[in-house]
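TA notes. Do not distribute before section.
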Amino acid sequence: MESQETLPLLGDSSNSNYHMVDVSPKSATLRVAQACGRIRMSPNTFTLVRDRKLPKGDALALAEISGITGAKQTALLLPLCHPIPIEKVTVKCIPIEDESSVEVVCEVSTTAKTGVEMEALVGTQTALLCLYDLIKMVDPALNIDGVRLNFKQGGKKGGWKHPDYKPAVFSKEPKIFSSLEVSILIASDRVSKNEAQDFSGPCAQKWFELRGAKIKEISVVPDEKQKLQQSIFESCERKIPLVVISGGTGMGPRDVTIGALQELNAKEVKGFGELLRKEGSAHKKTAWLSNSGGYIVNQTLVLALPGSPKAVEEGLMVLEDLLPHALHVITGGNHG
C-alpha cells in the first residue's frame, strides 16, 4: 500500500506579502452589517433630486439599484475580501430636507464564516457615486461625507455599534410592535438574591422598544416553579399579549421554566423551539440542548429563552418576522 504524501501548504509561513484570512475553522453564522453616508448639494439641486426631476431621471431609485449591485461586487473590487453568498441587500436613499442632502443606508446580511461590513460600505459608496454621477451635470459642487459602518452583528464577537449610530433613520427597524405590550421575566436564583446583575432584561427591553413596543414590567423571580407560574399568571390576568422569560431553559436541576409552563397546561408552539435550536446551533452547537420555545397560556404568547443577553437578542431576531402573525392568530385573527 502506497503511503500518503504530505503536501506542502503555504499557510501563513510563506513569503507572500498578502493573504486572505483563513476562515475555514469558523462556523457559518448569521451576519448583518449596516453602513451609511451622505451627499450634500445646493437647495435648488436638492429640490430636483427629491422631486425626481433631474435630466438623467430618478436619481434616488437608480442609486438604490446601483448600491445593491455594488455590494454584490465587493470581492471583485477588494482583493483580500472573501467572496460570500449574500442573502439580502437593502439600500435606502433618504432625502434630508433641512440639510439639502441625501442619506444613503445600505444593509447586508448573509449566513457565512465572515462578516459583511465591507459589502455594506461598498454598497453605500456605490450608491453615493451613482447619485454624484446623476447630479453633477446640474451641480458639480457636491460633497460626499460621513461614510461609516453603523453596526455589525454575528460571529464570535457578537455585535458592535458605532457610537453615533441612530437607528430611527432606517426602515430595518420599523415600529412593527407599536401597539404591543410586553412583560419580561428573569428566571434566576442569583439575580433574585442580588448575587449577579441581569443583562438579559435590558437587552430584551431595548430590542422591543426599538420596534415600538411598550414594556409593562421587568421582574426577577427565582428558579422556583410556583413563583414563576404566579408571575406568568398575573401577566395573563392583565391580558398582556406577550411574556418573554429569560433563563431556566437548560438541562440543569434548577432549570424549571419549561416545567412551570407545562404544569400550567400551556400549549407549545413547537415550530418556535425547532427554529430557535436550528438557528442557534449555527452560532453554538450546544443550542441543541436548550429547551427554549414558545407557549400559549390563555391568549398570551410566552417566549422561553436562554438566560444570556446574546441568546435573547439572537432568539428575538430569529422570531421577529413570525411574532406579529402569531400574536394576531392567538387573539382570534385569521391564518391568511
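Switch to the second chain here.
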Amino acid sequence: MKSLLVSATEFEIAPFLSHFGLKSGLNYLNGNQIVVLVTGVGMVATAFSMGNILATDKFDFALNAGIAGSFSTDIELGEVVIVNEDCFSELGAMDGDSFLPIEELGFGKSIFTPLQSGLLEGLYSTHKGVRGITVNCVHGDDMEIASISERLNPAVETMEGAGFFYSCNQAGLPSAQLRSISNYVERRDKSRWNIPLAIEMLNRRLINIYTAI
C-alpha cells in the first residue's frame, strides 16, 4: 500500500516523523510506502504541490493533517476532527453587502467533499465529522466571523483544506483531512491558543493510525 501524508508545515507533524524516523519524500513503514509532502502554508501552495506529485505518482489514499481554528466551543482545544466537507469561502463576488459564490456566477464550484474508500472508513467512523472553510486570511473580526458563520455555518477554518480536497478529487484519489483544534475563531488573542496541545494530540492520532496500517 502507498499513501500520501500532506501537511502545510513540518512543524505540525514533527513528532510523528520523529517517532517513526521518517522524512519528507518516500519512506517505508511496516512494509508500506508513505510519501510525506510538506506543501507550505495556503491553498495555492497546497494545490501546486499536490498537482506536481499527483501528476507523476499514484497512491491508495491521501491524508491531510494539521491544526485548525474552531468556530464552535463545543469542540475542545486539542480535539481531533475529520473534515467531511470543505469550501473556498472567498471564491465569488461581492454585490453590495451580499456575497455571490462562484456557483451562482456560473464559473465553477467552491464546495468539495472527499472521495472515500474502504481504507478510510475507519477514520470517518471514529472521528467527529465537521464542515470546514478554507481562507486566505483567517478570521479575527467579530462582524466578519458572524457573517461567515451565518452564510456557511462552518465548524473549522484552515488555509489549505479545500485545496487538498480539490486536488485529490481531480485525481480520483480517496482522501481524508484530520485537524486538531489549536484555537477558537475570535478576535486574535494568542494567549488563549494551545498549539502545543493540538500538535501533541494530532501526532498521537497519526502514530496510532499508521501503527495500525
